[in-house]
Amino acid sequence: MVDRLANSEANTRRISIVENCFGAAGQPLTIPGRVLIGEGVLTKLCRKKPKARQFFLFNDILVYGNIVIQKKKYNKQHIIPLENVTIDSIQDEGDLRNGWLIKTPTKSFAVYAATATEKSEWMNHINKCVSDLLSKSGKTPSNEHAAVWVPDSEATVCMRCQKAKFTPVNRRHHCRKCGFVVCGPCSEKRFLLPSQSSKPVRICDFCYELLSTGEMTACQSARSDSYSHSPKSSLNDASDDDDDEDSSD
């Protein structure tokens, strides 16, 4: 079916509409062989609170952005190559349900669908696209993924020293290796993680010691499931912190 749609006028028109919705700030999306599989609104668990985001699934990439005007205008376009994507289901618990993790070497995060059926359809389509891409390229699935950040709301004190309380003055920081919320003194060091940045990034002291001694896999065992429970956050706050994951903290 994808091959039949690849060069169809309907597919070209649909992709053109998506491009226009992102405007001049978005990257061009029309290339030979690319097919728009589906689209919809998912709740993305951002650093400070869950936010509604518009997602577009193509046969080779996953695109998402902030909703400015539904079906008409989006901004802050993000493009994720599907070859590098792995997805894992999240158990229902708390206010957010029907979720799964989208994991890549550069960025990983949790999303939630409105219904269990919608979740199943998204996960099935993503897995099918990834499988087809890997089959055609002969590549193996990526086994390196960026940590999923623990939301700010889940940590009132530093998750490493367990002593420092967070206040407007004592700010929260995130370790780029394990995703923990940590205080400044526990995350003063920097380490080069090539899959995430061309420059050394902030990591906690615990991960720094493991990385320095070559025990990188141990960093991943600190949390078995970032979102085994969901933060009880409001979904109606209009402030935008979708890009907090890419900030210096």
TrEMBL record:
Domain of life: Eukaryota
Biased composition (Polar residues): 221-232
CDD domains tied to this protein: FYVE_PKHF2, PH_Phafin2-like
Bilayer topology: Peripheral membrane protein
Keywords from the named record: Endoplasmic reticulum, Endosome, Membrane, Metal-binding, Protein transport, Transport, Zinc, Zinc-finger
One GO CC term on file: early endosome membrane
GO molecular function, a single term: phosphatidylinositol binding
Residue ranges of every copy of the PH domain listed in the record: 35-131
Keyword Transmembrane helix: no
Pfam families: FYVE (PF01363), PH (PF00169)
UniProt domain FYVE-type: residue ranges: 152-212
GO BP of this protein: endosome organization; endosome to lysosome transport; protein transport
SUPFAM superfamilies xref list: FYVE/PHD zinc finger, PH domain-like
SMART domains linked: FYVE (SM00064), PH (SM00233)
Region annotation Disordered: where it falls in the sequence: 221-249
Chief localization: membrane
Ranges of Acidic residues composition bias in the record: 238-249
Protein localization: Early endosome membrane; Endoplasmic reticulum
Role this protein plays: May play a role in early endosome fusion upstream of RAB5, hence regulating receptor trafficking and fluid-phase transport. Enhances cellular sensitivity to TNF-induced apoptosis.
Protein name, as recorded: Pleckstrin homology domain-containing family F member 2
Natural source organism: Psilopogon haemacephalus (coppersmith barbet)
Gene coding for it: Plekhf2
